[in-house]
Amino acid sequence: xxxxxxxxxxxxxxxxxxxxxxxxxxxxxxxxxxxxxxxxxxxxxxxxxxxxxxxxxxxxxxxxxxxxxxxxxxxxxxxxxxxxxxxxxxxxxxxxxxxxxxxxxxxxxxxxxxxxxxxxxxxxxxxxxxxxxxxxxxxxxxxxxxxxxxxxxxxxxxxxxxxxxxxxxxxxxxxxxxxxxxxxxxxxxxxxxxxxxxxxxxxxxxxxxxxxxxxxxxxxxxxxxxxxxxxxxxxxxxxxxxxxxxxxxxxxxxxxxxxxxxxxxxxxxxxxxxxxxxxxxxxxxxxxxxxxxxxxxxxxxxxxxxxxxxxxxxxxxxxxxxxxxxxxxxxxxxxxxxxxxxxxxxxxxxxxxxxxxxxxxxxxxxxxxxxxxxxxxxxxxxxxxxxxxxxxxxxxxxxxxxxxxxxxxxxxxxxxxxxxxxxxxxxxxxxxxxxxxxxxxxxxxxxxxxxxxxxxxxxxxxxxxx
Amino acid sequence: xxxxxxxxxxxxxxxxxxxxxxxxxxxxxxxxxxxxxxxxxxxxxxxxxxxxxxxxxxxxxxxxxxxxxxxxxxxxxxxxxxxxxxxxxxxxxxxxxxxxxxxxxxxxxxxxxxxxxxxxxxxxxxxxxxxxxxxxxxxxxxxxxxxxxxxxxxxxxxxxxxxxxxxxxxxxxxxxxxxxxxxxxxxxxxxxxxxxxxxxxxxxxxxxxxxxxxxxxxxxxxxxxxxxxxxxxxxxxxxxxxxxxxxxxxxxxxxxxxxxxxxxxxxxxxxxxxxxxxxxxxxxxxxxxxxxxxxxxxxxxxxxxxxxxxxxxxxxxxxxxxxxxxxxxxxxxxxxxxxxxxxxxxxxxxxxxxxxxxxxxxxxxxxxxxxxxxxxxxxxxxxxxxxxxxxxxxxxxxxxxxxxxxxxxxxxxxxxxxxxxxxxxxxxxxxxxxxxxxxxxxxxxxxxxxxxxxxxxxxxxxxxxx
Amino acid sequence: xxxxxxxxxxxxxxxxxxxxxxxxxxxxxxxxxxxxxxxxxxxxxxxxxxxxxxxxxxxxxxxxxxxxxxxxxxxxxxxxxxxxxxxxxxxxxxxxxxxxxxxxxxxxxxxxxxxxxxxxxxxxxxxxxxxxxxxxxxxxxxxxxxxxxxxxxxxxxxxxxxxxxxxxxxxxxxxxxxxxxxxxxxxxxxxxxxxxxxxxxxxxxxxxxxxxxxxxxxxxxxxxxxxxxxxxxxxxxxxxxxxxxxxxxxxxxxxxxxxxxxxxxxxxxxxxxxxxxxxxxxxxxxxxxxxxxxxxxxxxxxxxxxxxxxxxxxxxxxxxxxxxxxxxxxxxxxxxxxxxxxxxxxxxxxxxxxxxxxxxxxxxxxxxxxxxxxxxxxxxxxxxxxxxxxxxxxxxxxxxxxxxxxxxxxxxxxxxxxxxxxxxxxxxxxxxxxxxxxxxxxxxxxxxxxxxxxxxxxxxxxxxxx
Amino acid sequence: xxxxxxxxxxxxxxxxxxxxxxxxxxxxxxxxxxxxxxxxxxxxxxxxxxxxxxxxxxxxxxxxxxxxxxxxxxxxxxxxxxxxxxxxxxxxxxxxxxxxxxxxxxxxxxxxxxxxxxxxxxxxxxxxxxxxxxxxxxxxxxxxxxxxxxxxxxxxxxxxxxxxxxxxxxxxxxxxxxxxxxxxxxxxxxxxxxxxxxxxxxxxxxxxxxxxxxxxxxxxxxxxxxxxxxxxxxxxxxxxxxxxxxxxxxxxxxxxxxxxxxxxxxxxxxxxxxxxxxxxxxxxxxxxxxxxxxxxxxxxxxxxxxxxxxxxxxxxxxxxxxxxxxxxxxxxxxxxxxxxxxxxxxxxxxxxxxxxxxxxxxxxxxxxxxxxxxxxxxxxxxxxxxxxxxxxxxxxxxxxxxxxxxxxxxxxxxxxxxxxxxxxxxxxxxxxxxxxxxxxxxxxxxxxxxxxxxxxxxxxxxxxxx
Lengths: 466, 466, 466, 466
Fold this sequence. Notes:
The structure is a homotetramer.
Chain A: E1 9-16, H1 21-31, E2 39-45, E3 50-56, H2 59-62, H3 65-70, E4 75-82, E5 96-100, E6 103-110, H4 116-125, H5 135-146, H6 151-161, E7 167-172, E8 176-180, E9 189-193, E10 196-200, H7 204-209, E11 212-216, E12 222-226, E13 229-233, E14 243-244, H8 245-251, E15 257-258, E16 261-262, H9 263-277, E17 284-287, H10 293-303, E18 311-313, H11 326-336, E19 337-339, H12 341-344, E20 348-353, H13 360-371, E21 376-381, H14 403-406, H15 409-416, E22 420-423, H16 426-432, E23 440-441, H17 443-446, H18 459-463
């Protein structure tokens, strides 16, 4: 009856030592909204009393001035969550808070664990009860069961049991704890705002609250932030890093720095590299907005072709279309983007995109371009073909649904209706990265999984959900 | 930081073996709505899959046709809950469902335990985490921790740990379990609807779904209802019964049978007895609607005074006034009831009421009667003075707030502004009961507590809440 | 395309000269909520600026403390409305406010006009446009088109065009105007609260705000209330009065005085008269709550049979069941009322009701009584059979739907499943009235229409609706 | 008490002859959502019966599948509305429907009339009543009062009374009527979809529903579309055209054609011209997204400077920030856009924007750029300074609030905190237009008003509002 939890794309934030912790956490979540739009939550503490508020929907809908005023304290954590499963439920909103022998503790998690089944079975065998299928609940159970004298030791023990990806923020009555898994799958940054410590999934959250970036939380590092300061421990065996390369390509905001470097500049370089690998004879470069914008700029620059923002985005699409339903998504394609007929009529176009997942959305777009008179449509993708799902927290469809897992590039071009289709090579992708190629997890392009799931990682087990 | 949970007044229902279990549970909750208006929930199973829906508010607001259609199965349990604390929260809605080593289990609870603190400390010391302060969560923890081979034995073990009041319904994938504490504080009835088994807090639920009353669940009895039939066990040492006498006086619906006998007829007898003990020279008997209606009828009949429904109830008071706030409650007094001026002008009135708690509401009412020209206002109450709070699930105010705990009858009459005030005696109350006087808990009138709380039962501990 | 507007049952209130006019109007509407639950509205003026708020639903849902705070002024009018048609629409909420040559004017109307078609045709022929089908809009058009020098004269002119029933409150920037049609179909009372003038459909509104009843607005009277005092005019030819007798029987609140006398005492007398006309050999009298309560008391008293409140009302039926849908209504019958099985088993019952409209609800109730073991069920109705719809503002079904319009009393008894059925005679009804029998409209029992509708009053025209 | 109605920016659509008129109107409104986000409405007819639905909020929020299913018919009109005044009220949503002597008529209006006061006074003097301050209500009054034999003549008469801007869609039971004022202030296009006629404010609506653009509605043209075809009349004296030049610069969608030519290409040309007039020594061109995107591309191309999308837009800003409050707007500036620090650090930037109204938003943006390390910030605006409000339907602030009405370019640069500020000249703007410079209204830049308001056009009168 129990299945591996839903893959989640999430964002986390934490702060310690600022009188308006709740409002800063709120603003930070605003900046991280792209990492999860399903639910949002904030838990704060004034050193003695923990208060929490969470709800379904966007940060702006979940919190009001009144709600924030009630969240009193100088330390707090926040979380935004996205799930593609039907289980949109307030129960699954985070931070996840419980009471146990030491008092209260709340946790916000970004990433995905790959040995939850085993850990959960063990806990249940000892009498544990579970109210959700979230990794967060499992983590708290492990902390409560560690039963060492010091909270620090319990946290270290609990994390030592975990396999997979986690960028974590925890809060108790008196401290904020921050942790990143030894592989470092997901980003996590440390900043300062006047005297206060801040952590966030991406630096764009620091920009909004005017905090200063200090450094990344190291893979395998745990921070205990208390009144008497920040204590860093790195209790786990060091392993090869596995930074998620797809955060650079697609997921993170372009104005963020992650893994120590800027996303916008990296995406532009991917486009430049793509122009070298995949030259096309055409009249103009048009990015798919906004995902292809930055690679498009790089492609145009490197190729010398004019850059045109020839597909216009409708900014007023309303709430309905944010819902994760297949029907709506297709309808959304037509409503969200419209090409500029006068610009493209009779023209040869290079369409730059950052990825192709199912191919259906691209097919609709290309058809629209042709209907409006485009003479040729060539597509250039700023990463290699996606052939494998992600075990570590990016919510891809199953292997079967990934068009590149079963179709050749030519077949995909046919399916989408292109004059030509070219992907960036794995080599080209790695070459464009701002840091050493050895740091990355590229499993979705290469099937090289840095951490093998307990269940062998067959597709089925990974993606069966409650 | 942990405190004894809020006292709750609740209603439960269970059904096994009917194709439309959800809809019948829904209707049953409708009939039990007077036992709790804060939240409502239903959990059903089709033998393999458990589904649940719960929400804040009245049964009619929480469930729609759509919601009920999604609750598929031939067995189910339901719960309505009321809490006077500020913690109106969806987290506290029941049935409370978890997953543990044997699968899923959900529980709905009416009553109040008096040794939760101790049990919770023990569980937390062994690594348990708690997400709520509800007794239900504690009970599930105990079942999950029993770790005997058979579910039945786990349930028996868990219940054997409990002290206090519980009328319980539980559901797992394949069975419905029903239990009543050995004292039998709260009512719980067994019925049949065609081939299906039904249990409910009161028989009024049976009337609505046209089920036939069979018998009460016995104090200390546990029912395990499965595909192959109903199994009854009575594993606990038999103790003196402690049926809540206040259910007869005030809490249950008059059209219900509880503890084997009818409520309406009992209340009428209380009024008749009251007329004998407390005769008044007056022109008419007016009940406070609707609480005093049935004792009022008895009083009028036994005294020979004319019965008049001289205080009119406004049925359209809307949602706002259901909220448990002191400000609104006072406002509500004036809006809810209005006397008939032409009827009472210049008249001597016997006002019959079923209880006085704080006295403030009565005071407002009596003042209105006088403003409208009543010549004399005498009040007769169909039970003895309330001098002690309830540890077993009725939500009275603290001892300090109970007017009779500190004031003499004369002082209360003065406070309310009466020409005379008379309460029914303990003896008269017990004499009016349809069953042996030995069966009852009368702690709120006599301070004789059948089960002493672990913390000694000081007022303070009982009523401190989260 | 245009049809006669929906029949409405409504309540109105007006106040002049109190600093908290909005809040008093609000409380008054609360007391009048039984006259209309679909929408509520308040319009106030501070002498210069008019403000308005209205909404769908109960008074308590439409207004909050904030809304009331924004309605500044010392004079105001209020309205509650009920319509059985599907056109539940905010457009139809009142007071209905417009701007015209003299400034702003708003109107709240209780009653129904019978020459709207003709008036509307004339106005449209002169270029008028209509946004609703409400009588209120028509009345305002007439005022705006009168084009006499003084507002008073315009109002008199406009009302002189109307045929049918109206109890009206109007407000302009500087005055409140109150009017009642010459027949006086609907009640309308004048009161004082300290120095302020108050008018309301029923005196129960005065009780709640502690105003003192002064007198009724006379049929054909118009009050102009301004800073310099109240001016009463009676410009219309005096006609025979036609007070709605059904207000006494059913519609008004028992604690109200209307047409100068109390409703409760009148209903009790109807029951006493009924006992004389329709004696039954039985064990007890049970009223259908709450409609049959007062006639039931009278019946029991006059007959010497014991009075029992043997059908219990569920007070927590929630919002859903207030909706005017046939499906819900039937479901509601079963949920709203439950007999006390122990009381009625084997007994002969006189069921007292204030009216039978379609007969379907009564049938369900009687069936339930029999299912629970009642030996005999006799029904006594405290008015004559309803054989004709109402043109003047009570929302009955069409003639075809009125069971008594086509079925004999015996056939109705058969349909409902009674041992016997007896109605009060027209003579008995009139005899029970507190004022002269000549004052009443009894059209729904006798077909004697005091004011003949323009369209001849065929059923069809009256009840065809948008 | 009456004031000129609120200035509105709106969008209209109409369709005749398609079985799914409601759904196409809905999609068309989606495409026109940028023209109004406050309310949306659709009115359809099946030739006999008119149905309507409107509500506050975005098109996606106002309409559901159910609502659309109920709007049956093969012809319809739709409207989106935006108002900056506080009077966000459902009463002001359009289409505005009434019933008058000929039956029902509904109207949707884009533009602003300048002689409403006079027309309204005349109508009120003849007994008219008004429920809103919308131009639409006035227009319907005029049609209803024309009292000629044929509807066509009434419409012509009514429009002949109007001064100012109107692009209108009207619907009666059997026809759709479309009109554009003789100056042609606002755009209005005619298209065909299979056999059906479609009209819309902009061609982007045609793209979404796959209709084919045919031609613009001519200034002064009225279309009567009935079952037997489309009839065009041009009854008014021809006047010099006054196409709103700001529609090209700012208001229309870039993928639309208006006034016969494409918006995107025009904006790019404005940028090219700007680069010629206002060369800057800099490292990169960054547009303010999305308003400056197209002029930015043109500027970059003509200047040879690299184009960078260096300010990133947060797409998930939620509902709160759509509200038109000053407080929220400022907060929104910081949340909506974030520069890419790594890109701009130490760089000289040309910031391209399409207009400056108050200057406060720009100031916040420039400050953020400097905080992030930009070495120089130069701003180039793709139109001349705004010195005058608009009488014809664009909602600018009052003259006092327009920064350029009182400050020199140098002072504005100081206020915003720029190294340099350059506006495009009137000559340059007109030169960039795709059609003859004589066709345009440039009043907001030049104070040359093509149609003088009745009240003399003082600022005060124009912008005083209810």
